Structures
1.
Amino acid sequence: LKMSCFWFYLPLQLLTATWLCHSINAPTTSSQQNFKTNLFNFYHPLILADGKETTIHLLKDIPKRYYFVLEEGRVLAPFSITVTPCDVPIEWSILVYKSPPGKAAPGDHDTHEFSKSQKTPSMVSTIFNYKGNSVETYMGMSSHSALYLLEFLSTERDTHITVYLTTDTTSGHLYPELPMDPRIDVIGIGHTTVTLTWKHSPSVLQHRENIQYCLLVNEKHNYKSLCAAETAIRSSGVKLPPTLALSLSPYLLEPQQVMILSNSELSIINKASSGEVRQVCMGTKNTYTVPSLSPSTQYYFDVFIVNLLTNASAAYTGTFARTLEEPEPKVTELKDGKVIHVVLDGKRQKFYSLRYQARHKKIHFTFQLCRGQIRVHITRNGKTVASEKLSGLRYFSLKGKPLDTYLVQLRSTEESNSSVKVQASPHFHKSLFPLLPESLKIKSFSKLRTCRSVTIAWLGTQEESKYCVYRKRIEEDQIWRELQSADSCSGPESRHKSDKVLCKYFYDLNPQRAVTTETVKGLEAGTFYLFDVYLFGPSGIPVRYHSKVVKTRKKC
């Protein structure tokens, strides 16, 4: 690049660089040449690179200046400058110096001419000025050689920006192009979902394999650039991967990040103290439904079109939407002594409400967790009296007044199906559920295993009850699925008749001796078996012990 350089009144360091630029071609001795070369290298960082995005760090209230020179001899030389604030609003301006008509650039000895040029302020003019945090692009055209000065200032706090200068406006763009209408449209709002659509970027049609859309969802505000979004997330205490442009790799995730990969979409959820920030890149699809949002919550949505080769991006005009309020859950009436089986679909219905009108002072609630994870919350006349996560068989004995209204709210804490059996009754009313032992575990004895038999044991109670033993042959790769899908409320009616081993009655008034064993024979060698024990109380409602998998010996 051949530079034209001029004398004019600027800060000392830029003046020195400008002087050097002019005098570098003048005849010099070897020592003078070395001095000028070293000086040029020292001030070289002040020259803004052409065709490259430059990151500039700004200190509060300290202006920073960069310059560039248009090529000499070009007619109507075009150029453009794009500045992207990455945090707070900044001030920036472009100044231009043009040589006076009919004046030649002075030499080192032209001190008189230099003093005269210092008195020509009309030749230094501001051609652009901006203050704010939006991404701004200035496009200019110069008909003769000129030196341009860019000045940046942050008055709020230390920050950083990116600057892109190019004098080649014909060979393509660093940044992906936005459509004529860059707005994001909200086309659907639910209790936990928002559906968005936006017009395609022209860059998608030209470079489909290197372009993708990335969506940012948060509860604070919209971001005007990807750079600003990344800075805000980092400042909230979450360390981001290098870019949102999905060079996001799974191994770069931090402990407070969750990655979800489904249907070729990659989601990164940042669990920051200021709220959840969700990032989703969905390729070149321009319609997306954001799932798993909270009801009655305002969210802000930003879409960025990202060039995967350069990591450069452009931001659509952000939008926001408020999810619908959670509908009032249907309330089911509980009747004295009646058992209700509640099934919660974790994906569709996370809440279930039961109401009980007391007719006595003492009330007894019984919960038998069948599957999944459920939290119970009980209120009496609007005031909380119990709240905890259910496990196994749980009893609540509450004391109030006749005609008190109890509301039982059940909430699934996972996305898979959960279920529970519930009974409410006066305190004196006998529970339909059987008396349970201290543990519902089944124990097997390794030393008593043979190729054809297995011996198991379990705890009983002080109340005479019926116990039924079932066994089922399974493959090794089925063990985890069988144990996870086990329903502790299901009875033997769901089993094949061939699975039944025996039923027997058993009890012991001494809890220390309430243990029974059973040897199951007629098994195959080297085979996995799933064993279940069902306990039946006086009412006939079964309670299933925790399933046990045992493998018979291969050789005996």
Note: The longest strand covers residues 298-307.
2.
Amino acid sequence: LILNTKNLLHIEDGAFRNLPRLKYLSICNTGIRQFPDLTQIFSLEAHFILELCDNLRMTTIPQNAFQGMNNESLTLKLYKNGFEDIHSHAFNGTKLNQLILKDNKNLRRIHNDALRGATGPDVLDISSTALESLPSYGLEAIQVLNATSSYSLKRLPPLDKFSSLLEAVLTYPSHCCAFRNLRTEKQNSLLSIFANFSKECESTMRKPTNEIFYRDDSYNTSLWSAEKNMYPFATDEENSPYSYSAIFDDSEMIGFDFEYDFCQPKILRCAPEPDAFNPCEDILGYSFLRVLIWFINILAIAGNFTVLLVLITSHYKLTVPRFLMCNLSFADFCMGLYLLLIATVDAQTSGQYYNHAIDWQTGSGCSTAGFFTVFASELSVYTLTVITVERWHTITYAMQLDRKLRLRHAVPIMLGGWVFSILIAVLPLLGVSSYMKVSICLPMDIETGLSQAYILLILVLNVVAFVVICACYIKIYIAVQNPELVAANKDTKVAKRMAVLIFTDFTCMAPISFFAISAAFKVPLITVTNSKILLVLFYPVNSCANPFLYAIFTKAFRRDFFLLMSKLGCCKSRAELYRMNYFSAYTSNCKNGSSATAPSKASQALLLLSA
């Protein structure tokens, strides 16, 4: 034992030479800067333990650092040192039982060939290190992997590298998804053979005890079972008709932990288990959603981009309805971008999301997607409410020009909506709820009272907005239903248009609000997996429908669209027709003495609510 010797700065080569009876060597809490020469120990003991700990100035493990120590089983406890790098072939020439590298806070790299030339290890502990990846060679023998608090290890090597793994204690639940129901290669090849002996085993074997033998005080695992003492059929292997050695040799049975008999080989165990917010699935979960989301996001992006382009390039005066429609189209365009981002990442990580979950959910991508969706959703709901109130106000006070809503009024109103929407979208980035909770980057974190209040505030405001929209459209319908103002067929047309507008709002808001409010009170009525159906089929309904219902299906928009196309050399005859109809209607109004600035209530209703 070489302990607590801070003034010990160097151990000369050959200091440990020809020590055949050495079983245990501990060098801890010293000032050594260079890895000591341990290659001339030549211990003949069946199991040799080396402990290097708290040597903070020791930064690397060189090539062949342990070659020649022992030709038998070797346990290396290399923890709480200053290691930053482990070189190629560092463990060459060893038969590793356990390799403990835990608590090396600065250990960022193990060379891909660090374990080349070594046998084992059976146990690898890299907990509380800064490793970003595991070596690509030498993982096949590992039966126990401990990687707790290894927050930089966000990706695992290909699963076929862990052909003998039985127990894994990891940092992130998503990594356990990779190992779910994964059996070792030998287990898979032997399961069918074991099944043939099921009835014989059940009739002759008794249930073994759960006694566990721990080979090392510092390591507690169920792998080292006292097999010879636990199983009655192992006491006389040569004569027993059910002796596994009669069928398989010992090397073939490595990797099995028998609970009742060899008919029930144990599958891999992994912790921590995935939770309800992050089940073992891709971002979208269902295959049909993966197809639908592309159709929906393209529809939302193309529709809203077209509306924005036509309204911005139109040579007609920017009116309040046009201004509000521009804001609504931009909000719904952002929602399309969110869906596009989710669909793209899902396509890139399909089948291997467990290896990308941490980078995605904790990175800037998910935060950006979350900001887009909350900002777009709130700005869209706000703008829809303003548009509806403006329509009601215009029809109700059609004859009172002094009460008409003008652009100088609409600008500060929408500026308030932008500030509100940005604030609501930024709060999860500042710790009020979080976009990192789920793969679809919605603020579903309700662990704190503040986060819960945040979610409830959004939902209540959305419900209030829907009630206001419904109330306004009902009032509009009552106003235009007067037979003195509009003909019966027009009345029916207006009623249908309003019914469509209210239905799309209800379809978008109702299911989302219902399930979200129940979840906010910690009584979830739907799983995250099923909520993704709402995300794709209901959540973006308004973003897809709004550009058509509020713009594309209106005569004014079609006029602006064909006029824009005529500037590009297309649809000139159609554009000329719209231009002639516009001037003809304007001339007719002038001859009849009607005022262009003070339309009747009936004409306002037809203009605002009929195509």
Note: The CA atoms of residues 245 and 251 lie 10 Å apart.
3.
Amino acid sequence: LWLCFNEDLFVPAVEVKIEVVIPEKERSKEEMSPNGKASPLIYKVNGTARHYHLEEHPIASNPYHNPKDVVEASVCHVKDLENGQMREVDLGCGKALLIKESGEFYAMGHKCPHYGAPLVKGVLSKGRVRCPWHGACFNISTGDIEDFPGLDSLPRFQVKIEKEKVYIRASKQALQTQRRTKMMAKCISLSNYNLSSTNVLIIGAGAAGLVCAETLRQEGFSDRIVMCTMDRHLPYDRPKLSKSMDSHPEQIALRPKEFFRTYDIEVLTEMQVAAVDIKNKIAVFKDGFKMEYNKLLIATGNTPKALSCKGKEVENVFNIRTPEDANRVVKLATSKNVVIVGASFLGMEVAAYLAERAHSVSLVELEEVPFKKFFGERVGRAVMKMFENHRVKFYMQTEVSELREQENKLKEVVLKSGKVLRADVCVVGIGAVPATGFLKQSGINIDSKGFIVVNKMMQTNIPGVFAAGDTVMFPLALRNNKKVNVPHWQMAHMHGRIAALNMLAHGTEISTIPYLWTAMFGKSIRYAGHGEGFDDVVIQGDLDELKFVAFYTK
């Protein structure tokens, strides 16, 4: 288990001048059906067998459709790179990542499609490049994304060796976009469907739900897919709600509207499932609408805990759950007094974001030090000091006893210690509970805390019902398959992919390493592994300068 704390620095890499280059049209396994053969897919909807094919994509003899869109350039001598080395190279109209492993050269996009991190600063190991910022992983042979976060893969470019020189041939467009969406199937004919039935129903439209839907299409699934969400928006980048609070929904959308139309992924917004009838395979919505399904994914996430103190109903008290919540908080907090309850990741990120915008930021926490359970006291105090240097005031080892209002709007926050804080807006970040209340009578196995229990293939105890994301307890390979809950954005992506593959009977088990990140005041914390207590913390680097790695041992 390790934690890294440093700055996201952009260091210019060595560049090699080049001529012009072109794109590559990839197909191969993306066009195969789930069984790996180019045969029709057969699925049952409401008991009726239907046969579906992927759309025909004739492969042209020339993989580059437009020669003017192509660049070819000499980028280095074959001896310039040793095995296991990477170099960012300039093709004149864009850059590529050149890699040498086991004597072979590979070239692909140089930026991570997630947030644009320079992959040359990442790690090359066993045929994969791992992003230096948030841990996404890409296969160097195909460019395919193999670990998350992020949705897109990398464009792959042709490499050839002539007279001891390495040449790259690439598409100008691919060099500029630095991303590649895997080829996907489409639904054969939506007009043939009964509106109240679907082959796959996905409850929840976060990372797990979206990745599940996309993976099904990537694997050739061409039957109906319906996602439903209580949210009013299409799937969006939820971590940004506390890291970039003034972002509008369209700015943080994971996919544009056109994407869902193109690949026939239906999204029902502002639709809440009230119950699931597993015997008859029917989801019952709050408004009475019913939908039959063949396969079900439950990815409803968590519900934020609310304060239970006196005055909890006053205006201007928020849980950050939607873009509208985040936007409203920023507007109310500007040049005003903010109180944040809970030194959670959400609470600390909100405090960092508002520190330079608000008149004052006060943070109330029951523990002695922020992040003590996660990072230990020494690291927690170092983080706390950084916040104090940015005018954030901490009130530790206490909690809120009352919220006072004036004209029905928040005016003061009273602590159990007796301290009274001026407050124009209050943000609550005291944890969350699984959003699984609607499943209590369903027969789906739920533990005493409300988490859905699944196996390594994200399957519940009910055939055809899968669960993913923050709401599940799953076997973690890193901990000898102990059942754990890991509410991380990266893990939700992987859950969704594993669930989709097993809806198609691939028999794929989850084995990824948990990874999370947070960013505050220009500093980044990255945390890998899964810790449940520790005996010692080994620090390498300078804790005072916040440039260190911490190893948590037990």
Note: The first helix runs from residue 172 to 177.
